Amino acid sequence: MAAITGARVRPQQVGEPYRLIEVTPYSASLGAVISGVDLSQELDEEVIAEIRRALVEHLVVFFRGQEMSPEQHLAFGRRFGTLSQHDQVKGMAEYPDIIEVRQEPTDKRNFGGAWHGDVTYLPEPPLGSILYAKEVPPIGGDTLWSNLYVAYESLSDGMRAMLDPLVMMHTPAKIYGLASRDWSKDSSMDSAPSKNAHYETAHPLVRTHPESGRKLVYVSGAFTPRFENMTEEESKPLIDFLMDHVTHEPFTCRWRWEVGDVAFWDNRATLHYALNDYSGHRRIMHRVTINGERPVA
Ligand code: SIN
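That is the input. Now the predicted structure with succinic acid docked in place:
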């Protein structure tokens, strides 16, 4: 069995040429397609290190035409760290470390249908997720990602100076809590409202990425309703501005899925959004998530 590589990328390695994989940038602001790799195989340490470097450099990397069993999907994920189970969504019965992101033709609401980072309310939010397309609609169901570095870097000096010391409160309550929605209109992904969703975790609003060393704005949609020591009402105007800003089109990319595609995103420096525009069709994805570390300013 392959060991966890866990080898962190150093900032000075970003931008070095790739020797073992082919990396083709996908859009101007983020994303790259990696070819020449079969994810069902036990990949060499050096290949894993290059994939990790491409992830840190491009923030979301795509692999086309993969055929992986759940075991192979899990094994690939484990090369980058330990795997995390979602605190609010049950994993697959046989594979608790895989979430099946399932949308049935009659579902009205979908999982991930708003800009967010995955479970950013955890004290140690994930490093990233690896999403594998099992069944996709004939058209629609794309996923978008946004680049939180360029969002930060494009702000004025004055705005950055104001944001730098702020602390953001993250919570699952708005999405998974008791009063979060009408639970009678469930999607196939819902279990039940959770009493355990009513807590908050403080993270720096501007965090430094542990591998690239770059700063980014760490907001996360409905998981971030207020700043520390401020009410939601007081926080809302600035949070609304930040969410509009970080999801500005030039900072995003959009992937149109085919069965067998895999997207691996850096959850520390991106938000993503799963579009729900394929009513009447089924969409099934398998997601493996890798543990991360406590964000630092
Ligand atoms: C998610 O992880 O938020 C779901 C993404 C997707 O289904 O495209």
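The helical segments are 45-58, 70-78, 148-153, 157-163, 173-176, 232-246.
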